[in-house]
Each structure stands twice: as C-alpha cells, then as structure tokens.
Amino acid sequence: MSNLGETGSGTQAVGSQGGAKPTVAQAFTTGSKSGGYTLHSVTARFGNDAGSPGNLTVAIHAADANNSANPAATAIANLTLTGSNPATAGDYSYTCSGTCTLSASATYFVVISVSNASGWNYYRARLTPSDNEATSPSNNGWSIANEGRVNTGNYWGGLSGRSLWLQVTAT
C-alpha cells in the first residue's frame, strides 16, 4: 500500500528542534486476509535535512489500547535502513529484521524518531494532504489514516489533516 504518488504539502521536523524532539507516526490498517500478513518493508519520503541529526529510527507500533488514535509506547518491530540516513530529499526504504507479522484488520503505526540529536538538527518527513492510496491485490483492504501524529515529548497531536508519505510492503 502506498501514498507516494500523491501531491506534497510541506514537511514535519523529526529530531531535535530547539529543545523539542519531535517523533512522527502514521497509522495504517491492514486488510482482512486470513492468517494476517508478513511485513517486508516501509518506504518513507523525506525532504532536505538540516545538519547531523543523529540516528533515525523507524519502527512499527500497535495502536495504544487506551487511545487508538496514538501508537503504543513499545515497538513490535524495528526496521533497518537500507543504506545511510537521508542526506538529500527522496524515498528511503527500511526493511524488517527477521519475521514481522501483522494481524488482519488491525491498526498499526509507522513511528519515525531520532536518537542522539542535539541543537537544531533534524530530518524533514514529507507530508501529503491526500487520503488516497494505492493498494496491491495482496493487500486489498489496507488503508492509511487521513492524518499523521506528532509528539514533542508530552503528548500526541495531529498533523493538521496531512499524512506522512509512505509505502508499506507486505504479503
């Protein structure tokens, strides 16, 4: 499933931005395939970065049991970047280490964060105002939530009706 073919609408800083350390998340819902899915990769689109922002991490979290609009605190899968951290604008792919299983008809979050960042160093996650996504036949029924989430350390808030640009590949 992908919304990488949509039009752009700005960026959201991820990393250290003058003391705040924004983490972004994007919810997606899996289809109804019996037995669930095996997650293979997530591709995220970034704009230009600023400085040396530290270690970029991408993980999959289940929805929070107390508030399904937000990701749970603990990752169920950590993804590994193929190549180096984004130094220029573009799409960057993160693969699942080992077997990453996703249940059918469940909500998960792609969570992008940075560790070891300081000062005004951050990455720019690209955003889209569109809620359209393309699904492949094996992922029929998947969807991307209409609004991403951002957390500066105290609480999760919305991204003003915009979603992170993502491609989630699973079978």
Would you write up a description of this structure?
The chain is an all-beta fold and 171 residues long. It has strands spanning 11-15, 23-29, 37-46, 55-63, 71-81, 90-102, 107-115, 122-128, 143-144, 149-151, 156-158, 163-164, 166-170. Strands 2, 3, 4, 5, 6, 7, 9, 10, 11 and 13 form a 10-stranded antiparallel sheet that branches.
Outline:
The chain is an all-beta fold and 171 residues long. The chain contains no helices and 13 strands. β5 and β6 form a beta hairpin.
List the keywords.
171 residues, mainly beta, 10-stranded antiparallel beta sheet, 13 strands, 0% helix
Return the string of H and E elements: EEEEEEEEEEEEE
Let me know the average pLDDT: 87
The amount of helix comes to: under 10%
Q: What is the 3D shape?
A: globular
Low-confidence parts: none
Count of distinct strands: 13
Rounded Rg? 15 Å
- By helix and strand content, what is the structural category? mainly beta
Number of helical stretches of at least 4 residues: 0
